[in-house]
Amino acid sequence: MSTNQNNLPAIISHCKEYGFIFPSSEIYDGLSAVYDYGQWGVELKKNIKDLWWKSMVYMHENIVGIDSAIFMHPTIWKASGHVDNFSDPMIDNLDSKKRYRVDHLIEGFVENLDAEKGAQIIADMELLLSKDDFDGLKNLIVNLGIKCPVSNTCNWTNVRQFNLMFSTQLGSVAEESDTIYLRPETAQGIFVNFLNVQKTGRMKIPFGIAQIGKAFRNEIVARGFIFRMREFEQMEMQFFVRPGTQKEWYEHWKETRMKWHLALGIPQEKYRFHDHVKLAHYADAACDIEYDFPMGFKEVEGIHSRTDFDLTQHQLYSKKKMQYFDNDIDEATGKAYGNYIPYVIETSIGLDRTILMVLSEAYTEEDLSTAEKQDSRVVLKFPIKIAPIKLAILPLMKKDGLAEIAKELMQSCSEHFFCFYEEKDSIGKRYRRMDALGTPFCVTIDHQTKEDGTVTIRYRDSMEQERIHMNDVKEVVMKAML
Ligand code: GAP
Asked: What is the DSSP letter of 148?
Protein backbone atom coordinates (compact mmCIF):
# COMPACT_ATOMS: atom_id res chain seq x y z
CA MET A 1 0.00 0.00 0.00
CA SER A 2 1.30 3.45 -0.85
CA THR A 3 1.46 5.66 2.23
CA ASN A 4 3.24 8.48 0.48
CA GLN A 5 1.13 11.57 -0.19
CA ASN A 6 2.82 11.74 -3.58
CA ASN A 7 1.30 8.50 -4.83
CA LEU A 8 2.45 8.95 -8.44
CA PRO A 9 4.67 5.81 -8.42
CA ALA A 10 1.70 3.76 -7.16
CA ILE A 11 -0.54 5.23 -9.89
CA ILE A 12 2.05 4.48 -12.58
CA SER A 13 2.41 0.84 -11.54
CA HIS A 14 -1.37 0.45 -11.19
CA CYS A 15 -1.84 1.79 -14.73
CA LYS A 16 0.64 -0.74 -16.11
CA GLU A 17 -0.60 -3.70 -14.08
CA TYR A 18 -4.25 -3.16 -15.00
CA GLY A 19 -3.91 -2.31 -18.70
CA PHE A 20 -4.38 1.47 -18.65
CA ILE A 21 -0.99 2.86 -19.75
CA PHE A 22 2.23 1.13 -20.81
CA PRO A 23 5.68 2.63 -21.49
CA SER A 24 6.04 2.83 -25.28
CA SER A 25 8.30 0.26 -26.99
CA GLU A 26 8.72 -1.47 -23.65
CA ILE A 27 10.37 -4.63 -25.01
CA TYR A 28 13.13 -2.36 -26.37
CA ASP A 29 13.51 -0.70 -22.95
CA GLY A 30 11.02 2.06 -23.73
CA LEU A 31 11.19 5.47 -25.38
CA SER A 32 11.58 8.38 -23.02
CA ALA A 33 8.39 10.38 -22.36
CA VAL A 34 6.30 8.37 -24.83
CA TYR A 35 3.45 6.13 -23.63
CA ASP A 36 0.89 3.72 -25.08
CA TYR A 37 -2.67 3.44 -23.87
CA GLY A 38 -3.87 -0.10 -23.13
CA GLN A 39 -7.34 -1.59 -23.36
CA TRP A 40 -8.80 0.34 -20.41
CA GLY A 41 -6.75 3.50 -20.89
CA VAL A 42 -8.10 3.88 -24.39
CA GLU A 43 -11.70 3.64 -23.12
CA LEU A 44 -11.01 6.24 -20.44
CA LYS A 45 -9.41 8.49 -23.05
CA LYS A 46 -12.32 8.09 -25.46
CA ASN A 47 -14.86 8.88 -22.72
CA ILE A 48 -13.00 12.08 -21.75
CA LYS A 49 -12.77 13.14 -25.40
CA ASP A 50 -16.50 12.51 -25.86
CA LEU A 51 -17.31 14.48 -22.71
CA TRP A 52 -15.27 17.45 -23.89
CA TRP A 53 -16.62 17.28 -27.46
CA LYS A 54 -20.19 17.07 -26.22
CA SER A 55 -19.77 20.03 -23.88
CA MET A 56 -17.98 22.21 -26.45
CA VAL A 57 -19.57 21.24 -29.79
CA TYR A 58 -22.97 19.65 -29.11
CA MET A 59 -23.87 22.04 -26.28
CA HIS A 60 -22.94 25.19 -28.23
CA GLU A 61 -24.89 26.00 -31.40
CA ASN A 62 -22.08 28.32 -32.48
CA ILE A 63 -19.17 25.87 -32.14
CA VAL A 64 -18.28 23.22 -34.73
CA GLY A 65 -15.45 20.71 -34.90
CA ILE A 66 -12.75 19.90 -37.44
CA ASP A 67 -9.93 17.39 -37.83
CA SER A 68 -6.97 18.98 -39.61
CA ALA A 69 -3.81 17.16 -40.71
CA ILE A 70 -0.75 16.89 -38.48
CA PHE A 71 1.53 17.86 -41.37
CA MET A 72 1.02 21.42 -42.52
CA HIS A 73 2.79 23.83 -44.85
CA PRO A 74 6.05 24.86 -43.11
CA THR A 75 5.34 28.56 -43.64
CA ILE A 76 2.46 28.20 -41.15
CA TRP A 77 5.02 27.77 -38.37
CA LYS A 78 7.03 30.74 -39.58
CA ALA A 79 3.86 32.87 -39.63
CA SER A 80 2.69 31.67 -36.21
CA GLY A 81 6.05 32.56 -34.67
CA HIS A 82 6.86 28.99 -33.66
CA VAL A 83 10.02 28.77 -35.80
CA ASP A 84 11.48 31.87 -34.12
CA ASN A 85 9.86 31.84 -30.70
CA PHE A 86 8.73 28.37 -29.68
CA SER A 87 11.69 27.72 -27.51
CA ASP A 88 12.57 27.37 -23.89
CA PRO A 89 15.64 28.63 -22.06
CA MET A 90 17.96 25.66 -21.51
CA ILE A 91 21.16 25.10 -19.63
CA ASP A 92 23.66 22.27 -20.04
CA ASN A 93 25.83 20.68 -17.38
CA LEU A 94 29.36 20.36 -18.76
CA ASP A 95 30.20 17.27 -16.70
CA SER A 96 27.12 15.12 -17.28
CA LYS A 97 26.39 16.63 -20.74
CA LYS A 98 22.73 16.72 -19.65
CA ARG A 99 20.48 19.55 -20.82
CA TYR A 100 17.76 21.04 -18.59
CA ARG A 101 14.91 23.45 -19.03
CA VAL A 102 15.86 26.31 -16.73
CA ASP A 103 12.39 26.60 -15.14
CA HIS A 104 12.22 22.83 -14.48
CA LEU A 105 15.68 22.82 -12.92
CA ILE A 106 14.78 25.67 -10.57
CA GLU A 107 11.33 24.21 -9.79
CA GLY A 108 12.94 20.85 -8.97
CA PHE A 109 15.37 22.58 -6.59
CA VAL A 110 12.56 24.50 -4.90
CA GLU A 111 10.54 21.33 -4.20
CA ASN A 112 12.87 20.54 -1.28
CA LEU A 113 12.71 24.01 0.30
CA ASP A 114 10.18 25.48 2.69
CA ALA A 115 7.14 27.01 0.96
CA GLU A 116 7.92 30.69 1.64
CA LYS A 117 11.52 30.54 0.43
CA GLY A 118 10.45 28.45 -2.57
CA ALA A 119 7.74 30.95 -3.55
CA GLN A 120 10.25 33.81 -3.49
CA ILE A 121 12.66 31.93 -5.79
CA ILE A 122 9.84 31.09 -8.21
CA ALA A 123 8.76 34.75 -8.24
CA ASP A 124 12.38 35.81 -9.00
CA MET A 125 12.60 33.20 -11.75
CA GLU A 126 9.29 34.29 -13.35
CA LEU A 127 10.44 37.90 -13.39
CA LEU A 128 13.71 36.97 -15.11
CA LEU A 129 11.86 34.75 -17.61
CA SER A 130 9.42 37.55 -18.40
CA LYS A 131 12.38 39.79 -19.29
CA ASP A 132 14.26 37.03 -21.21
CA ASP A 133 17.13 37.81 -18.84
CA PHE A 134 19.32 34.75 -19.52
CA ASP A 135 22.35 36.06 -17.60
CA GLY A 136 20.09 36.71 -14.61
CA LEU A 137 18.72 33.14 -14.81
CA LYS A 138 22.22 31.67 -14.92
CA ASN A 139 23.22 33.82 -11.92
CA LEU A 140 20.15 32.63 -10.03
CA ILE A 141 21.11 28.97 -10.66
CA VAL A 142 24.74 29.57 -9.68
CA ASN A 143 23.91 31.68 -6.60
CA LEU A 144 21.44 29.08 -5.34
CA GLY A 145 24.12 26.40 -5.80
CA ILE A 146 21.78 24.24 -7.89
CA LYS A 147 23.55 21.02 -8.86
CA CYS A 148 23.00 18.74 -11.83
CA PRO A 149 21.06 15.72 -10.51
CA VAL A 150 23.31 13.41 -12.57
CA SER A 151 26.88 14.77 -12.10
CA ASN A 152 26.14 16.55 -8.81
CA THR A 153 28.22 19.53 -9.98
CA CYS A 154 27.50 23.20 -10.69
CA ASN A 155 29.54 23.28 -13.90
CA TRP A 156 26.90 25.04 -16.04
CA THR A 157 26.96 26.56 -19.55
CA ASN A 158 25.24 29.86 -20.29
CA VAL A 159 21.47 29.79 -20.69
CA ARG A 160 20.35 29.41 -24.35
CA GLN A 161 17.09 29.09 -26.26
CA PHE A 162 16.18 25.66 -27.69
CA ASN A 163 13.35 25.14 -30.21
CA LEU A 164 10.84 22.46 -29.20
CA MET A 165 9.49 21.54 -32.65
CA PHE A 166 10.29 18.19 -34.25
CA SER A 167 11.20 18.47 -37.92
CA THR A 168 11.17 15.88 -40.66
CA GLN A 169 11.54 15.74 -44.46
CA LEU A 170 8.67 15.70 -46.92
CA GLY A 171 9.45 13.57 -49.97
CA SER A 172 12.67 11.70 -50.64
CA VAL A 173 15.15 14.52 -51.26
CA ALA A 174 16.63 15.96 -48.11
CA GLU A 175 16.72 19.60 -49.17
CA GLU A 176 16.06 22.42 -46.82
CA SER A 177 12.86 23.42 -48.61
CA ASP A 178 11.38 20.01 -47.82
CA THR A 179 11.66 20.45 -44.05
CA ILE A 180 8.29 20.24 -42.36
CA TYR A 181 7.32 20.13 -38.69
CA LEU A 182 5.19 17.88 -36.54
CA ARG A 183 2.62 20.33 -35.20
CA PRO A 184 3.40 21.52 -31.66
CA GLU A 185 -0.24 22.60 -31.16
CA THR A 186 -3.50 21.79 -32.95
CA ALA A 187 -4.56 25.45 -32.96
CA GLN A 188 -2.86 26.41 -36.24
CA GLY A 189 -4.95 23.83 -38.12
CA ILE A 190 -7.99 25.76 -36.91
CA PHE A 191 -6.62 29.19 -37.87
CA VAL A 192 -5.75 28.19 -41.43
CA ASN A 193 -9.25 26.71 -41.88
CA PHE A 194 -11.02 29.67 -40.29
CA LEU A 195 -12.55 31.00 -43.53
CA ASN A 196 -13.30 27.53 -44.95
CA VAL A 197 -15.41 26.76 -41.89
CA GLN A 198 -16.90 30.24 -41.59
CA LYS A 199 -18.06 30.28 -45.21
CA THR A 200 -19.20 26.66 -45.63
CA GLY A 201 -20.85 26.64 -42.19
CA ARG A 202 -22.29 30.16 -42.62
CA MET A 203 -20.96 30.92 -39.14
CA LYS A 204 -21.62 34.30 -37.60
CA ILE A 205 -19.29 35.91 -35.09
CA PRO A 206 -18.98 35.02 -32.23
CA PHE A 207 -18.34 31.39 -33.14
CA GLY A 208 -15.87 28.66 -32.29
CA ILE A 209 -13.97 25.82 -33.95
CA ALA A 210 -12.94 22.83 -31.85
CA GLN A 211 -10.42 20.12 -32.52
CA ILE A 212 -8.93 17.10 -30.74
CA GLY A 213 -5.62 15.77 -31.99
CA LYS A 214 -2.00 14.89 -31.51
CA ALA A 215 0.71 17.46 -30.88
CA PHE A 216 4.48 16.92 -30.61
CA ARG A 217 7.12 18.75 -28.60
CA ASN A 218 10.75 17.83 -28.12
CA GLU A 219 10.54 18.35 -24.37
CA ILE A 220 14.04 18.31 -22.96
CA VAL A 221 13.15 17.24 -19.49
CA ALA A 222 10.03 15.14 -19.75
CA ARG A 223 8.81 14.25 -16.28
CA GLY A 224 5.80 13.17 -14.33
CA PHE A 225 4.57 10.13 -16.30
CA ILE A 226 1.98 11.34 -18.86
CA PHE A 227 2.14 14.90 -17.51
CA ARG A 228 4.87 15.98 -19.93
CA MET A 229 5.19 13.86 -23.04
CA ARG A 230 6.86 14.26 -26.41
CA GLU A 231 3.75 13.03 -28.24
CA PHE A 232 0.46 14.00 -26.63
CA GLU A 233 -3.10 15.01 -27.41
CA GLN A 234 -4.76 18.38 -27.08
CA MET A 235 -8.42 19.38 -27.03
CA GLU A 236 -8.48 22.96 -28.30
CA MET A 237 -11.15 25.47 -29.20
CA GLN A 238 -10.62 28.82 -30.89
CA PHE A 239 -13.47 31.27 -30.32
CA PHE A 240 -13.59 34.10 -32.87
CA VAL A 241 -14.95 37.40 -31.52
CA ARG A 242 -15.41 41.02 -32.52
CA PRO A 243 -12.32 43.13 -31.64
CA GLY A 244 -12.86 44.97 -28.38
CA THR A 245 -15.04 42.20 -26.88
CA GLN A 246 -12.16 39.83 -26.14
CA LYS A 247 -11.92 40.68 -22.43
CA GLU A 248 -15.50 39.68 -21.66
CA TRP A 249 -15.20 36.48 -23.74
CA TYR A 250 -11.94 35.65 -21.96
CA GLU A 251 -13.76 35.88 -18.61
CA HIS A 252 -16.69 33.89 -20.04
CA TRP A 253 -14.45 31.01 -21.13
CA LYS A 254 -12.49 31.02 -17.86
CA GLU A 255 -15.75 30.53 -16.00
CA THR A 256 -17.18 27.99 -18.49
CA ARG A 257 -14.07 25.84 -18.47
CA MET A 258 -13.82 25.86 -14.69
CA LYS A 259 -17.44 24.66 -14.53
CA TRP A 260 -16.51 21.77 -16.85
CA HIS A 261 -13.69 20.78 -14.51
CA LEU A 262 -15.93 20.94 -11.46
CA ALA A 263 -18.56 18.80 -13.24
CA LEU A 264 -15.96 16.00 -13.20
CA GLY A 265 -16.75 15.81 -9.48
CA ILE A 266 -13.34 17.22 -8.50
CA PRO A 267 -13.66 19.66 -5.57
CA GLN A 268 -12.99 23.40 -6.07
CA GLU A 269 -10.04 23.40 -3.67
CA LYS A 270 -8.12 21.05 -5.99
CA TYR A 271 -8.16 23.73 -8.71
CA ARG A 272 -6.79 27.24 -9.00
CA PHE A 273 -6.23 29.84 -11.71
CA HIS A 274 -2.68 30.98 -12.39
CA ASP A 275 -2.32 34.20 -14.38
CA HIS A 276 0.68 34.29 -16.70
CA VAL A 277 3.37 36.85 -15.88
CA LYS A 278 5.25 36.16 -19.10
CA LEU A 279 2.72 36.23 -21.93
CA ALA A 280 3.28 34.07 -25.03
CA HIS A 281 4.15 36.02 -28.17
CA TYR A 282 0.51 35.92 -29.33
CA ALA A 283 -1.43 36.73 -26.14
CA ASP A 284 -2.84 39.87 -24.46
CA ALA A 285 -4.08 37.88 -21.45
CA ALA A 286 -3.56 34.27 -20.40
CA CYS A 287 -4.07 31.98 -17.45
CA ASP A 288 -3.79 28.31 -16.58
CA ILE A 289 -6.26 26.15 -14.76
CA GLU A 290 -4.04 24.26 -12.36
CA TYR A 291 -4.92 21.01 -10.61
CA ASP A 292 -3.32 19.73 -7.42
CA PHE A 293 -1.49 16.73 -8.96
CA PRO A 294 0.43 14.28 -6.71
CA MET A 295 3.51 16.45 -7.47
CA GLY A 296 1.69 19.71 -6.57
CA PHE A 297 -0.39 22.34 -8.41
CA LYS A 298 0.37 22.21 -12.16
CA GLU A 299 -1.25 23.37 -15.39
CA VAL A 300 -3.90 21.17 -16.94
CA GLU A 301 -5.52 23.75 -19.26
CA GLY A 302 -4.57 27.10 -20.74
CA ILE A 303 -6.99 29.91 -21.58
CA HIS A 304 -5.47 32.52 -23.85
CA SER A 305 -6.67 35.76 -25.38
CA ARG A 306 -4.67 35.44 -28.62
CA THR A 307 -5.75 38.79 -30.12
CA ASP A 308 -5.79 38.85 -33.96
CA PHE A 309 -2.14 37.79 -34.01
CA ASP A 310 -2.46 34.41 -35.75
CA LEU A 311 -4.98 35.40 -38.43
CA THR A 312 -3.07 38.62 -39.17
CA GLN A 313 0.18 36.68 -39.53
CA HIS A 314 -1.45 34.13 -41.86
CA GLN A 315 -2.88 36.97 -43.95
CA LEU A 316 0.60 38.46 -44.17
CA TYR A 317 2.45 35.25 -45.05
CA SER A 318 -0.18 33.63 -47.31
CA LYS A 319 -1.25 36.91 -48.92
CA LYS A 320 -4.87 35.68 -48.61
CA LYS A 321 -7.46 37.84 -46.86
CA MET A 322 -8.40 36.53 -43.42
CA GLN A 323 -11.15 39.08 -42.87
CA TYR A 324 -14.71 38.51 -41.80
CA PHE A 325 -17.58 40.71 -42.94
CA ASP A 326 -19.82 41.63 -40.00
CA ASN A 327 -23.17 43.04 -41.14
CA ASP A 328 -24.48 43.62 -37.62
CA ILE A 329 -25.12 47.27 -36.84
CA ASP A 330 -22.78 49.06 -34.47
CA GLU A 331 -25.12 51.07 -32.20
CA ALA A 332 -22.48 53.76 -31.68
CA THR A 333 -22.15 54.61 -35.39
CA GLY A 334 -25.45 53.29 -36.80
CA LYS A 335 -23.40 51.48 -39.47
CA ALA A 336 -22.44 47.82 -40.02
CA TYR A 337 -19.24 46.74 -38.30
CA GLY A 338 -17.93 45.76 -41.75
CA ASN A 339 -14.65 43.94 -42.48
CA TYR A 340 -12.22 43.03 -39.74
CA ILE A 341 -9.86 40.29 -38.60
CA PRO A 342 -11.50 38.65 -35.58
CA TYR A 343 -9.88 38.36 -32.17
CA VAL A 344 -9.55 34.90 -30.66
CA ILE A 345 -10.03 33.36 -27.25
CA GLU A 346 -8.50 29.91 -27.02
CA THR A 347 -9.20 27.12 -24.55
CA SER A 348 -6.51 24.44 -24.72
CA ILE A 349 -6.57 21.38 -22.51
CA GLY A 350 -4.14 18.46 -22.59
CA LEU A 351 -6.00 15.18 -22.90
CA ASP A 352 -3.22 13.13 -21.32
CA ARG A 353 -2.92 15.60 -18.45
CA THR A 354 -6.67 15.36 -17.93
CA ILE A 355 -6.30 11.59 -17.78
CA LEU A 356 -3.54 11.93 -15.16
CA MET A 357 -5.80 14.34 -13.25
CA VAL A 358 -8.78 11.95 -13.17
CA LEU A 359 -6.51 9.01 -12.31
CA SER A 360 -4.93 10.98 -9.45
CA GLU A 361 -8.36 11.95 -8.17
CA ALA A 362 -9.82 8.46 -8.56
CA TYR A 363 -6.94 6.39 -7.17
CA THR A 364 -7.86 5.32 -3.65
CA GLU A 365 -6.31 2.80 -1.31
CA GLU A 366 -8.71 1.59 1.35
CA ASP A 367 -7.94 -0.35 4.48
CA LEU A 368 -10.82 -2.81 5.02
CA SER A 369 -9.26 -4.72 7.92
CA THR A 370 -11.49 -6.06 10.67
CA ALA A 371 -10.61 -7.56 14.05
CA GLU A 372 -10.61 -10.97 12.36
CA LYS A 373 -8.55 -10.29 9.24
CA GLN A 374 -6.36 -7.83 7.41
CA ASP A 375 -7.79 -6.60 4.14
CA SER A 376 -7.39 -3.71 1.71
CA ARG A 377 -8.39 -2.70 -1.78
CA VAL A 378 -7.31 -0.29 -4.50
CA VAL A 379 -10.28 1.31 -6.16
CA LEU A 380 -10.46 3.85 -8.98
CA LYS A 381 -13.42 6.07 -8.11
CA PHE A 382 -13.98 7.47 -11.60
CA PRO A 383 -17.10 9.54 -12.28
CA ILE A 384 -19.49 7.02 -13.86
CA LYS A 385 -19.68 8.85 -17.18
CA ILE A 386 -15.94 8.40 -17.84
CA ALA A 387 -15.39 4.95 -16.25
CA PRO A 388 -13.97 2.58 -18.91
CA ILE A 389 -16.32 -0.27 -17.99
CA LYS A 390 -19.78 0.70 -16.75
CA LEU A 391 -21.09 -2.73 -15.81
CA ALA A 392 -19.48 -6.09 -15.04
CA ILE A 393 -21.72 -9.11 -15.52
CA LEU A 394 -20.59 -12.02 -13.38
CA PRO A 395 -22.35 -15.40 -13.35
CA LEU A 396 -21.71 -17.14 -10.03
CA MET A 397 -20.77 -20.24 -12.03
CA LYS A 398 -20.63 -21.25 -15.65
CA LYS A 399 -22.99 -24.22 -15.37
CA ASP A 400 -26.70 -24.58 -14.52
CA GLY A 401 -27.64 -22.10 -17.25
CA LEU A 402 -26.24 -19.08 -15.30
CA ALA A 403 -23.77 -18.19 -18.06
CA GLU A 404 -26.60 -18.14 -20.61
CA ILE A 405 -28.67 -15.72 -18.51
CA ALA A 406 -25.58 -13.52 -18.03
CA LYS A 407 -24.90 -13.47 -21.77
CA GLU A 408 -28.51 -12.44 -22.42
CA LEU A 409 -28.15 -9.50 -20.01
CA MET A 410 -24.84 -8.63 -21.63
CA GLN A 411 -26.46 -8.52 -25.05
CA SER A 412 -29.30 -6.26 -23.92
CA CYS A 413 -26.90 -3.76 -22.25
CA SER A 414 -23.90 -3.76 -24.62
CA GLU A 415 -25.43 -1.51 -27.24
CA HIS A 416 -26.05 1.17 -24.60
CA PHE A 417 -22.77 1.15 -22.64
CA PHE A 418 -19.55 -0.82 -22.26
CA CYS A 419 -20.04 -4.09 -20.34
CA PHE A 420 -17.51 -6.68 -19.26
CA TYR A 421 -18.25 -10.37 -18.83
CA GLU A 422 -16.24 -12.61 -16.51
CA GLU A 423 -16.89 -16.10 -15.20
CA LYS A 424 -13.44 -17.05 -13.81
CA ASP A 425 -12.35 -16.83 -10.12
CA SER A 426 -14.35 -16.32 -6.94
CA ILE A 427 -16.88 -13.49 -6.85
CA GLY A 428 -14.77 -11.68 -4.22
CA LYS A 429 -11.72 -11.69 -6.49
CA ARG A 430 -13.75 -10.55 -9.47
CA TYR A 431 -15.20 -7.64 -7.44
CA ARG A 432 -11.70 -6.51 -6.42
CA ARG A 433 -10.51 -6.65 -10.00
CA MET A 434 -13.45 -4.52 -11.10
CA ASP A 435 -12.69 -2.03 -8.27
CA ALA A 436 -9.13 -1.75 -9.59
CA LEU A 437 -10.50 -0.94 -13.07
CA GLY A 438 -12.99 1.57 -11.66
CA THR A 439 -16.15 -0.31 -12.71
CA PRO A 440 -19.06 1.36 -10.91
CA PHE A 441 -21.53 -1.58 -11.07
CA CYS A 442 -21.18 -5.35 -10.87
CA VAL A 443 -24.13 -7.73 -11.15
CA THR A 444 -23.99 -11.34 -10.08
CA ILE A 445 -26.27 -13.93 -11.62
CA ASP A 446 -26.99 -16.83 -9.24
CA HIS A 447 -29.51 -19.62 -8.78
CA GLN A 448 -32.14 -17.24 -7.40
CA THR A 449 -31.98 -15.37 -10.74
CA LYS A 450 -33.40 -18.49 -12.37
CA GLU A 451 -36.29 -18.52 -9.92
CA ASP A 452 -37.36 -14.87 -9.69
CA GLY A 453 -35.26 -12.97 -12.29
CA THR A 454 -33.40 -10.90 -9.65
CA VAL A 455 -29.63 -10.28 -9.57
CA THR A 456 -27.26 -8.90 -6.94
CA ILE A 457 -26.03 -5.44 -7.88
CA ARG A 458 -22.89 -4.25 -6.10
CA TYR A 459 -21.90 -0.58 -5.95
CA ARG A 460 -18.16 0.15 -6.34
CA ASP A 461 -17.74 3.03 -3.87
CA SER A 462 -19.90 1.85 -0.97
CA MET A 463 -19.43 -1.87 -1.73
CA GLU A 464 -23.11 -2.22 -0.78
CA GLN A 465 -25.14 -4.88 -2.47
CA GLU A 466 -28.87 -5.25 -3.13
CA ARG A 467 -31.16 -7.40 -5.19
CA ILE A 468 -32.91 -5.82 -8.11
CA HIS A 469 -34.77 -7.28 -11.07
CA MET A 470 -32.58 -8.14 -14.03
CA ASN A 471 -34.83 -6.06 -16.29
CA ASP A 472 -34.00 -2.93 -14.24
CA VAL A 473 -30.18 -3.19 -14.52
CA LYS A 474 -29.89 -1.28 -17.78
CA GLU A 475 -32.03 1.55 -16.43
CA VAL A 476 -30.00 1.85 -13.18
CA VAL A 477 -26.71 2.16 -15.10
CA MET A 478 -28.05 4.56 -17.73
CA LYS A 479 -29.58 6.85 -15.09
CA ALA A 480 -26.25 6.97 -13.24
CA MET A 481 -24.41 7.91 -16.44
CA LEU A 482 -26.42 11.10 -16.97
N1 GAP B 1 -2.45 26.23 -28.40
C2 GAP B 1 -1.98 26.67 -27.15
C3 GAP B 1 -1.10 25.72 -26.47
O4 GAP B 1 -0.68 24.74 -27.04
P5 GAP B 1 0.03 25.24 -24.18
O6 GAP B 1 -0.21 25.86 -22.84
O7 GAP B 1 1.43 25.16 -24.67
O8 GAP B 1 -0.89 26.04 -25.19
C9 GAP B 1 -1.93 23.56 -23.86
O10 GAP B 1 -0.59 23.78 -24.17
C11 GAP B 1 -2.11 22.33 -23.02
O12 GAP B 1 -1.50 21.20 -23.66
C13 GAP B 1 -1.44 22.41 -21.66
O14 GAP B 1 -2.28 23.03 -20.70
C15 GAP B 1 -1.21 20.94 -21.32
O16 GAP B 1 -2.37 20.38 -20.73
C17 GAP B 1 -1.00 20.32 -22.67
N18 GAP B 1 0.43 20.08 -22.91
C19 GAP B 1 1.36 20.97 -23.33
N20 GAP B 1 2.57 20.39 -23.43
C21 GAP B 1 2.39 19.09 -23.09
C22 GAP B 1 3.28 17.96 -23.00
N23 GAP B 1 4.56 18.04 -23.32
N24 GAP B 1 2.76 16.76 -22.58
C25 GAP B 1 1.44 16.66 -22.25
N26 GAP B 1 0.58 17.69 -22.33
C27 GAP B 1 1.04 18.89 -22.74
From this structure: P
The residue extents of the domains of the chain are 2-86+166-360, 91-160, 389-481
Task: Give me ligand 1 centre to Cα 33, in Å.
Answer: 14
What's the rounded Cα separation, in Å, for the pair 245 and 347?
16
Q: Does position 270 have pLDDT exceeding 70, yes or no?
A: yes
Taking the mean position of all CA atoms in its chain, how far away is CA 303?
14
User: Can you give the pLDDT at residue 3?
Assistant: 42
Q: What CA–CA distance (Å, rounded) separates 107 from 102?
A: 9
* pLDDT of 414 strictly over 50: yes
Pocket test for ligand 1, best of 88, 299, 349 (most atoms within 8 A of CB): 299
Using most ligand atoms within 8 A of CB, pick from 348, 349, 357, 359 the residue to mutate for ligand 1: 348
Can you give the pTM of this predicted structure? 0.89
pLDDT in tens, 199-227: 999 999 999 999 999 999 998 766 789 99
Architecture, CATH, for domain 2-86+166-360: 2-Layer Sandwich (3.30)
For the CA of 185, the closest atom of ligand 1 is 4
- 165 alpha carbon – ligand 1 mean position (Å): 13
CATH number, domain 389-481, options 3.40.1620.10, 3.40.50.300, 3.40.50.800, 1.10.3720.10:
3.40.50.800
Q: How far is the CA of 28 from the centre of ligand 1 (A)?
A: 28
Q: What is the pLDDT of residues 104-120, one digit of tens each?
A: 899 889 988 988 899 89
CA distance 424 to 397: 8
Amino acid making up residue 265: G
